[in-house]
């Protein structure tokens, strides 16, 4: 059954101020797992201790491309020590987006080394991989056509797919066999036409259809993320959990 986790970038300021206390609050809200975006100076032993205490699973870790390329053995060792076997490339800077074929070669090597170590390597998208084209297709589709499933899996950020003007459900269906993780978040348009991330159920994204499709595809985790919070991030993730519990109570096949 698909489980619900939290991308800790959402509560990054609280994590910096009180790492362990913030994780205890997240567990108390009902999130079963967390996706790391930094460790705020904690050792692997300290991270594993608080995960064991709270009963939460380390479902993945957003790891910068440079670290994956240049310090992969260290990242694998740290993450295995905390019980995590999924490393995720979260972003590619603008300075590298003109050399995609070189990036794909690096990613293929990273993916092979991860596979050899028993670790899953995923890519997390923003909108630019969908609005920028390569060989006549969106970059994201080219990436997944060139790199095999055994070396690259997908963490689909459905909100960024929506923001790019494409259909998140169609992308979930297209990559159902390579989709262990789905980022689950909502967005609303501002008066000036820009957008902001909001609590689940407070925006325009069809988050129910996304959850239904992700569950049908067999995704292991729906991962809540709110890039920027207008209010207290801990209050925001509590509000999102209220929507999730309502979804689960009305037939959503998730475990909360």
From TrEMBL:
SUPFAM superfamilies according to UniProt: Xylose isomerase-like (SSF51658)
- All copies of the Xylose isomerase-like TIM barrel domain together span 23-246
The name this protein carries in UniProt is: Sugar phosphate isomerase
Database matches in Gene3D superfamilies: Divalent-metal-dependent TIM barrel enzymes
| Record has Isomerase as a keyword | yes
Please provide the record's keywords in A-Z order.
Answer: Isomerase
Tell me yes or no: is Heme among this UniProt entry's keywords. no
Q: Which domain of life is it from?
A: Bacteria
What is the protein's species of origin? Paenibacillus apis
Q: Name one GO molecular function term.
A: isomerase activity
Pfam families, A to Z = AP_endonuc_2 (PF01261)
